[in-house]
Design goal:
Radius of gyration of chain A: 21 Å
Shape of chain C: globular
Number of helices of chain C: 9
Helix content of chain A: over 70%
Number of helices of chain A: 8
Number of domains of chain C: 1
CATH architecture of chain A: Up-down Bundle
Helix content of chain C: over 70%
Number of domains of chain A: 1
Structural class of chain A: mainly alpha
Number of strands of chain A: 0
Strand content of chain C: under 5%
Structural class of chain C: mainly alpha
Shape of chain A: flat
Distance between the termini of chain A: 29 Å
Oligomer: heterotrimer
Order of helices and strands of chain C: HHHHHHHHH
Distance between the termini of chain C: 22 Å
Chains: A mainly alpha (258), B mainly alpha (55), C mainly alpha (222)
Largest interface: A-B, 46 and 32 residues
Radius of gyration of chain C: 18 Å
Chain lengths: 258, 55, 222
């Protein structure tokens, strides 16, 4: 392989070639930041925040329930964004990132539902309440599931990317409508404790812990999504020179982290 | 620290099952996912190296 | 453009007339599904009256989704879909025509049959009227969204089940407002808000779904 060939190949897959090693370097940092922020947030939330007057100590689930719910919603939008970019600009890396986001988003949605149920039981007496927030979260899980099912059912990667992008965009457009309809259908869930317009009803230390946990989850998501994106990129572009060089390098020098 | 003892901490004012049930499952999810993804990446690298060797 | 539309609708109706049993399957499924609920829930009239709007609406939703894969499947198999898509600037017309013919074959029969099921569930005349009205406005939404699902899953093995999984969440607003309208009337309240919202959903879907479906068809056939 001549140098000219090698450079041409690298140019053609420029984005993934730059992304792959860069992502690899960033992953340990994101993981470390996630661990530190989570430790700090949990220390504040579990060891320093006072017991709630009405809910006792069961409210402490909020420190994972709310961040997980926020992440589940944020990741869906981000996924739709990158999928749309991949479709509009024929940018395969963007589509790869979108596919990498979906499982993590679904995981956070599941966590939000699970922790919501466990918080609901002592608070409202039942394991599941069909209130607006939890029901919308359940529907969001279905939206993630639909996206994952569709892209995995399509063998051709590019058709899968584009169909997934269309579905994600349609889903995003519908999320406000679905949420509004669910709110219309039922209003039971406790009102927003954290809002940009009204003062939080929680003590400052509770708010601080919740925001720290959100940032920790955000950093965790970056780390996991970058690793998954690297894996997907390798799976798809296993003929590209840049990918071969990376695998060859890692075979010769085992990395300390993935 | 607002807890008087370790057993108080684990009891969570009587709500221990719920609080720890939530935290343990969350921690499990956020431990299993990175492991599964790392495994997927390792396997992708291995498959690619094998494909490159065969060429 | 209107020529293509009329041709496609006429063709679909003619094909359905030749396979009358196949065309009747959605309504048969609907009948069976609706009849299962009293068997599962118990024959108590008060309960049945309460669950009737939801049961009828959910059965309509599932019947629509199960029948929508046929929209493109046969045309894809015999190559006529490719031929249709070759017509310049006709994509939107084809997509709308498919949704209309699906509604004529599945949605409209459901609207016509609804009063019978209303009586099975001992619904009041006003409630039955609301049921017919909400289905009249809502079933086109189901046809439009099902159309999108059929285009997205064109030719895929997992077909119908996958389609239901990806499209049903999008149908939830129509379900909520539609069944909610009937429940409101049954409770003696005004359903005006429900109808307005259902109408808004229909307009929103009618404008945007064909665009998305046309894009999905292009993605699936390229």
């Amino acid at each position: 392989m001549t140098t000219a060939n090698h450079r041409w190949r690298l140019y053609r897959f420029a984005s993934p070639a730059t992304f792959y090693p860069l992502a690899g370097k960033l992953v340990p940092w994101f993981a470390a930041v996630a661990a530190i922020l989570a430790a700090w947030g949990l220390w504040l939330g579990m060891l320093r925040a006072p017991t709630d007057a009405t809910q006792g100590d069961s409210y402490r689930i909020i420190f994972i329930h709310v961040p997980a719910a926020w992440m589940s919603m944020l990741l869906y939008v981000v996924m739709a964004f990158w999928a749309a970019i991949g479709w509009a600009f024929n940018a395969r890396l963007a589509s790869v990132v979108a596919r990498a986001i979906a499982p993590t988003g679904a995981m956070f949605t599941f966590v939000a539902l699970w922790t919501g149920a466990l918080w609901g039981k002592p608070t409202w007496g039942t394991w599941w309440v069909w209130d607006a927030r939890l029901t919308s979260e359940l529907i969001l899980l279905f939206l993630y599931g639909g996206y994952l099912a569709l892209v995995s059912a399509i063998d051709d990667p590019r058709r899968g990317d584009r169909a997934g992008a269309l579905l994600a965009i349609v889903g995003s457009v519908n999320v406000p409508i679905i949420y509004f309809s669910v709110v219309w259908w039922n209003t039971l869930h406790q009102g927003a404790s954290v809002s940009v317009t009204t003062a939080p009803k929680m003590a400052a230390v509770m708010l601080q812990a919740m925001l720290l946990m959100t940032l920790a989850f955000w950093s965790y998501a970056f780390a996991v999504i970058f690793v998954r994106a690297r894996a997907i990129a390798l799976e798809r572009d296993n003929r590209a020179a840049w990918a071969g060089a990376a695998a060859g390098r890692t075979a010769a020098q085992p990395e300390a982290t993935t | 620290m607002i807890w008087n003892s370790a057993s108080d901490f684990f009891a969570m004012g009587g709500y221990g099952t719920y609080v720890w049930g939530a935290y343990v499952v969350t921690a499990a999810c956020m431990a299993i996912e990175p492991i599964a993804v790392a495994w997927r990446h390792r396997r992708a690298r291995r498959d690619l190296a094998a494909a490159e060797d065969r060429r | 453009m209107s020529g293509t539309f009329a041709v496609v609708v006429a063709r679909d109706l003619r094909l359905a007339a030749r396979r009358r049993i196949d065309a009747a399957l959605p309504i048969a499924f609907f009948t069976v599904a609706v009849s299962l609920f009293p068997l599962g829930v118990g024959p108590e009239p008060q309960t049945l009256r309460q669950i009737a709007p939801g049961v009828v609406w959910v059965a309509a939703l599932l019947a629509a989704m199960l029948s929508v894969t046929q929209l493109y499947a046969t045309d894809l198999a015999d190559g006529s879909l490719e031929q249709m898509l070759l017509v310049p600037d006709a994509r939107i017309a084809i997509v709308v025509a498919k949704a209309v013919s699906h509604w004529l074959l599945t949605g409209l029969p459901l609207v016509v049959a609804a009063p019978v099921f209303g009586l099975m569930f001992d619904m009041s005349p006003e409630a039955i009227g609301a049921l017919v009205a909400s289905l009249l406005v809502g079933t086109p939404v189901l046809s439009l969204l099902g159309n999108l699902g059929a285009a997205l899953t064109l030719g895929l093995r997992s077909g119908a089940v996958l389609l239901i999984l990806i499209i049903v969440p999008l149908c939830i607003p129509a379900l909520i407002f539609g069944a909610g309208a009937v429940a409101a009337v049954d409770a003696g309240q005004s359903a005006r808000g429900h109808y307005s919202l259902l109408g808004a959903v229909l307009i929103f879907t009618a404008v945007l779904a064909p665009l998305a479906t046309a894009a999905a068809l292009r993605i699936a056939t390229e």
